[in-house]
Design goal:
By secondary structure, this protein is an alpha/beta fold. The protein has 2 domains: 162 residues, Rossmann fold, CATH 3.40.50; 156 residues, Glycogen Phosphorylase B (Rossmann fold), CATH 3.40.50. The chain has 14 helices and 12 strands. Strands 1, 2, 3, 4, 5, 6 and 12 form a 7-stranded parallel beta sheet that branches. A 5-stranded parallel beta sheet has the order 8-7-9-10-11, sandwiched between helices. The N and C termini lie close together (12 Å).
Amino acid sequence: MKSVQLVNVPRGKADTQVYMQSFCQSWVTNGGDYVSRPQILRKKWFKNMVKGISLTGVHWGNSSDAYLVCSRGQHLLKSCLPFNFKGEIIPMLWDCWPYTWKSLEHDLRLLNVKLCFMTASDVIDRFSKIFPDTKFVHIPEGLDMSDYVPGLPLSERNIDVYEIGRKYPAYHQKLIEAGLDKKCSFIYLNKKPDGKTFIFDTFEKYRNALCNSKITVSFPASVTDAVNTSVETLTMRYWESMLSRCVIVGYCPKELYNLLGYNPVVEADISHAAAQLEEILSNISSYQSLVDRNREVALKNAAWDYRIEFIFKVLEQSGYSVHS
């Protein structure tokens, strides 16, 4: 039986994005074995050298070792370094958008992947046909629920509208043209106009703004980006809003609906975007029961802990050991 170790992505105090970190933290908390990434990989020259060797297809890993590697779709090979020389790679993949498919297919083939976890079910459908001998398993995005708090009742919050997640310029422009940003307390996305600097320089500040928001606006990439229409998937932004008891306005991904059995999102009226938000704000207390329900349901469905238990079972059933 092969021993599986997670290549840990530790969480730092300055981190503003924690999706992989919280996954790793849950793995470790639940008793999974793990290893740390060598510090020398921080040196660009060394990383480029190792990657170059990897691209030749040379691998000399111990067949008794396996490594669970967290990565975005377009960076799989880079994320595996240097563990692809030491044993079998089992990817845990986020952000497998269509523009990543060519490089991802190349990396999966080069690494001879036999088992792969992905957060997007639509992508699994596609890659299962390309790699019939590889087992692909859907793992819906989750989070560490201890990171989020229920906040005050909606009527007592200070931020009216917070557009989080992916940019949807067509929708945002309608709000601006109607002067909504002048009429109420309004935050647009998580980054400043330069597109690089985060509005909140720590995760804690972001969390505090979220639980002080009445409405959060969220659309999946399949709606906001024409090139991603074939991949409709659940992201952690929905869980964050549900756990923070925000009224979510936007679009509900089918993965979220199928998981919960109901739609926790107020579907956006694109033609009357600003008017819809103003109507909700003027009757915000009437949505308190919805956000209370959404939080209770999220508490039972959003945690990485539930998914880690499932991953352990899949690994064990596939002939791997996750505990020393």
